[in-house]
Amino acid sequence: MKAAPRFLSAVSAAALALTPAVGGAIAVQTLTMASAQAAVVNAISVRGNQRVAEQTIADFVGYQPGRNFTDSDVNDAVRALFRSGLFSNVSVVRSGSTLVVTVEEFATVNQVLFQGNRRLDDDRLRGVVQLAPRARFDQDTLDADVEAIVEAYSRTGRSDITVDASVVDLGENRVNVIFQVVEGDRTKISRINFTGNNAFGDRRLQAVITTKQSNPLSFLTRNDVYDDQRLAADEERLRRFYFNRGYADFRVISSSADVDPSSGNIVINIEVDEGDRYTFGNIEIDSTVTGVDPQSLTSTIQTRSGRVYSAVDVEDTLIDMSERLAGAGFPFAEVTPVGNRNFDNRTIDVTYIVDQGQRAFIERIEIAGNTRTRDYVIRREFDLAEGDAFNQILIRRAQRRLEALDFFSTVSISTRPGSSPDRVIVVVQVEEKPTGEFGAGVGYTTGGQDEGVNLEGSITERNFLGRGQAIRIGIGGSQNSRTYNISFTEPYFLGYRVAATGNVFQNRRDFGDYEEVATGGSVSFGLPLTDDLTATAGYSYSQTAFNADGADCTDLPGDPDANCSAPGYVQTRIASGRDRIKSSVSYGLIYNTIDDRNDPRSGLFVRAIQEVAGLGGDARFVRSTVDASYYVTVSEDAEVVGLLSAGAGNVTGIGRTVEGFDQFQLGQRRIRGFSYNGIGPTDAAGNFIGGKTYFNATAEVQFPLPAFPRDLGFKGALFADAATLFGSDVAGAMNTNMEWRASAGLSVIWQSPFAPLRFDYAWPLAKQAHDKEQRFSFSVSSAF
């Protein structure tokens, strides 16, 4: 490197090297500085300034009349002017007793304009670039903005985007910046290839990763856009998938995205090494911490000898063991799993070593990437706060909770050193995803008052206003009915980990001779006892009005009219002219280990609820229900999933018989092939009046539809249902015996971009003559 000219000081040369040119609009001048002995300065002359006041520049250089200015003072003045960020070029010269300061100001951006952009609007691009009106202009920022626009388009699948930037000089040191965008065609992912995979086929592994092949619906999901960060996250998903299925030596050898020259589309190639499949061998605990008895920690072990090795079981053990130690007064105890592979019998012995970890505290928790979700929504998922003892295992638990929120496509938590050796900064990086859902359902009922098409629709936002709250608005109806409901859930009621849900509704049904209008609301609370077990409690209130539309139902009081279509207990309520009020409390337990709410493959869901009515109002009963669903993957590679579910319920009067209003009425969720309230006891006129007790069971097998690409989200199912509804306290009830109904059918399940939808067609196999059939139904399939 050449030495700087003699008339430049070292500082001046450094300043020159760091000073960029400005788009050709402003030329960079050579810095000059007089080199002289110290001299008294009595005046200052500022030249070249247009917007910056002369006094401001004098303050920057430290000018004071009569001050003795040395060469070092001149150098300091140059540094100060450049540090201000206002000038592209500076010259400071002493001329006799006058300090001459010549500056060249950075241009100011007047407007930032975008042309040719259709896929990303101006507001979206303004959020990407750094240049903005009234900001200073420089070429480096302009170049960075061009790259930022290209990157923004690449994330939407348009990799052949070109951006040209131009600068228009408006005079008076003002410029307009124009970005000319040529968007080009959308780049698609035509194939995702796996090599080295023997235990699981390409189709199964493609279901694990979030990057998908392009299909006709990709314009809705945008999951066929290549992103190197997403691909890196997919590698981690593959590792988790294999580690949790016994393949402890699994690794991703390479992953690449290549452009197919014939089509211009992207082909993703992922090479893996699966390794051998292991089971757990001997499981032990070894503690070096005084006062910690290994035997006291055995109940926290989730890993069992003989089971298929699973990293998540090891992780759950670490979390439970760390919590037990912290609760016992050992907050810095560190649990480390040590595995010893036995290659002969393919087992892994695991020893959990408890050591005294390094004393470290959390200095602060930093959150990035959450453009919509509030910081506190993320922070409250941590069992740790600033100032608490740092625990890596509890940090991992927080990450799992954040992932379970389903607000983010990726969640990563890292650490970096704090202000002292015993301080740690926790960094949470998230990438948000859409949390709005649209649900729709349609069914067709044959026979009876409700014959015809039944529709329902709902809009749900799971992260309302970024506050982690959920709101749902639903509406449904048929030719003779209308339903409306709004619910709102606050997952952290009063700052505690208690979910509070409020709901208001109105249901209207026209039965011809009379109309039934039920209006009410409820509030419920869910308290997590463990990660899998939740206690619930709630209160509900409803008021039902019965309006007679025909003379047949109004020529009372006295005996019910045989010409009225309403059941006798309804006619009695119509005759009284008084609304029916129900006030009840409920409580129960929910156990849930389902792996995916929308697309379950394994786990157990059990819900037991009891409702007691009688806090005022007309209803007096105790209603008990229990439901259980068990999912198991029958074939991992073929993606065949089995489902067994069962349910039961009973209602008993308190000091009186159970009114017909309070009896069970079964629908398609209990037994398909029959319409809602289409089985069970009836009155003499053939009206279904519900029953006091029910049982139901379902066996189902789900599998991918071979005719459809996996990324479209279609699955098929074969099912068999059985149910019975019997018993009644209603006077004159008929068909009250325990009689089983059965049906079998097939389904198409679609994991649509809006919501999981399900099409069912069922054939009743065992039925009674008075039953009402409904063979086809279409509804939202989520059952939890």
From TrEMBL:
POTRA domain: residues covered: 39-106, 107-184, 187-275, 360-433
Family the UniProt entry places it in: Belongs to the BamA family.
Matching NCBIfam families: OM_YaeT
Keyword Nucleotide-binding: no
Subunit structure: Part of the Bam complex.
Function: Part of the outer membrane protein assembly complex, which is involved in assembly and insertion of beta-barrel proteins into the outer membrane.
Species of the source: Oceaniradius stylonematis
Main location group: membrane
Subcellular location: Cell outer membrane; Membrane
HAMAP family, A to Z: OM_assembly_BamA (MF_01430)
InterPro entries, A to Z: Bac_surfAg_D15, BamA/TamA_POTRA, D15-like, OM_assembly_BamA, POTRA
GO terms classed as biological process: Gram-negative-bacterium-type cell outer membrane assembly; protein insertion into membrane
Keywords from the UniProt entry: Cell outer membrane, Membrane, Repeat, Signal, Transmembrane, Transmembrane beta strand
Signal peptide positions on this chain: 1-17
Protein name per UniProt: Outer membrane protein assembly factor BamA
UniProt KW Repeat keyword: yes
GO CC, any one term: cell outer membrane
Top-rank taxon, per record: Bacteria
Gene name linked to the record: bamA
